What we know:
Layout: H1 2-25, H2 33-49, H3 51-54, H4 72-76, H5 78-87, E1 88-89, E2 93-95, E3 98-100, E4 104-105, H6 112-122, H7 135-144
Antiparallel strand pairs: 1-4, 2-3
Helix pairs in contact: 2-6, 6-7
Bound molecules: heme C.
Heme C binds next to helix 3, helix 4, helix 5, strand 2 and strand 4.
Amino acid sequence: MQIRRIVPPLLFIAAIILAACSGRNSDRSSDSPKFLQYYRQGEQLYVQHCSNCHQRNGTGLRQVYPPLANSDYMRGNRDEVICMIRYGNAEPLVVNGIQFVQPMPGIPSLTDLEIAQIVTYIYNSWDYEEGIIEVKDVSEVLSACEGREVVGNKKM
Ligand code: HEC
């Protein structure tokens, strides 16, 4: 009965592979502790720094402040959004067919980690489900826009 001797080791190997795979995925799943920590911190920072203009529920304010909920701009320009949080934006931009011309002030005092937490929050709220956006990825994006002039008067 050779098969009896082979099956248990095979099951053992299968269990190890399964455990390894689920371990690797756990940081990406929306209930991993790291994701939740980013998300909750990001939510607090959003309320503190962004919701005045974009509103708590992300709807923005008519033609003055663009919406974050359901924004085609946000979907297509994640790197630019990351840079915009630090440096602001003075160029007009179009969200869902509507042009916005008010400048958005930058917030240069936010750390790379805080920006990662904010983008994790906004990209997993309303109708977005992009998962955790890690600080190392955010730092890489930020280094590409380093040296831009900060829009607005919220200097460090
Ligand atoms: C003083 C008001 C104000 C604050 C505070 C502010 N924004 Fe903005 N935001 C704007 C305006 C105005 C624009 C449009 C900018 C332009 O047209 O140049 C904009 C544009 C954006 C956009 C791109 C357009 C869109 O709707 O998809 C995103 C994303 C965004 N802001 C996110 C944030 C986040 C996140 C924060 C907080 C860290 C923040 N904003 C803080 C006013 C603000």
